[in-house]
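Consider this today:
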Amino acid sequence: MKLTARNLHKWAGLLAALWLAVLGTTGFLLDHRDWRWMWQAKVDAGWLPERLVKTADNAVARIIRANPENTSHRLAGSPRGLWRTEDGGKNWQRPLFEGYGARQPQVFSIEADPELGWKRLWVGSDDGVWLSLDNGRTLRPFALPGMRVTSLAHSGLPGELLGVHERSRIFRLPTTGANAPQWLELTPPSSDMMPDEISLSRWLLDLHTGKGLLSQFVSGLINDFAGLAWLVLAISGLLYWLTVRCWKRNRRVPDGGRRTLAWLVNSHSSTIGICAALPILYLSISGIYYGHFADLSPWAKAVKVSREWQMPAYSPSSWDGWIEGAATYPNEPNMISVGTRLGLFTSMDSGRTWVLEAVSGVEMDAARKVIRIGDGVFVPNGMAAPVYMRQGGDDWMKVHRFEAWVGRHLPAEVMPWGEGKLAWRHGRDIYITDFRVSEIETTQAKLLLPKDDGVPWFYVISRLHSGVLIHPQWKWVNDLFALLALILVATGLVRWWKRKWLNAVPRNADHARIHVLLRARQA
């Protein structure tokens, strides 16, 4: 067989079509991981590998909050819903959300009332803000029904909460009287307030998850198109190959065959193929990095992309999709800090101007969560970045002690734990410290988490996308398919270029192929 662009394209497509269709479909779904059904519709655990079931069990509760007056009384929440326990986690029950019956909304935030503590609890969900007056047994809707409240925190004023809608807008919510939120008019940070450098690792991850090109919306839309294009290209390519093969075997072209073949060719290459070439290219390359993150990240984090080479995504014209969490400060209601994946931004004038926070002259790596406890603001990042904190009027500081106390397993959450104590959580592990994090009381204890039957579709889809559902080392197979995708892009562009501009083959090459079949039939 002669090695040509056509033959390379055909055989790469036949080898890769099925799995590229799976990657495209699962990638599209993962771009919309906030959909409730992906977390609350479940697959029976008996159908899945034990390692996946264990991962899902460990992540049932993304948020844990304990009553400081009785730490055996806890609430646990996640996109899968809400649980409560009064015996330290030995027994968990599902609270009742009024109007939901046996169902529950997704839970993103749990906050005790600034004045009344656990006598009045607030929950941020994908269906607004909920209020509990009985220690979490029942909840009733309070404000913003139907809206996605991704963060709640104590405000700088009494009788008020600070919330975030859809990681994009900030509001102040009175806890008494009228439950109408006051929306803040936020100005995006100026370009000179954005990081001077971002790591190559950050950019590759953002590219793959639909955040690294233009605005959050446009970048996500491009990735959605590429994911669906992978599916459509695989189907149309296979249909083209099967159609021509069938006609050759039967030596017969049915009525309308010319139109059918022309439609398949044009939709496969001239329409979808050309438009999806660039996204498929960068998704394949960034996908290889994603699969080998543990091995490649030290190198990629050391490579810096300076501001002049950064994509427009890193000079945002709005806060849409950026805000991971927000907090204000005691007696300083106009001072707001906003956490993003690029660091922590603080405004002294309710969001009109911003500065990027730094510790000892070094910009924060990330601010995945911003948690206000008393007069302290804490930024626990888990494995993504170090822990930062600011107490009272002090400057921001990096908490180095955790690396000495617990090694690489940095906490991703912090909560009040009794008088003058904090509890830091990493997975099922919990560490108790004093409020200033100068001493550690408990080096490691285990949390008892709620049980939830089945495995949410999100975990099944994400593990299928990475291939871990099939085998722990499937990343090497994904590398092969990424290489085949690159070959398909290159050979597809070459074939399109020759047909469209160089006339190396007739402009209606599909018609010419049909004529060959017709002549073969007549012979």
About this structure: The mean pLDDT is 87. The longest strand covers residues 70-78. The chain has eleven helices and 30 strands. The CA atoms of residues 16 and 481 lie 6 Å apart.
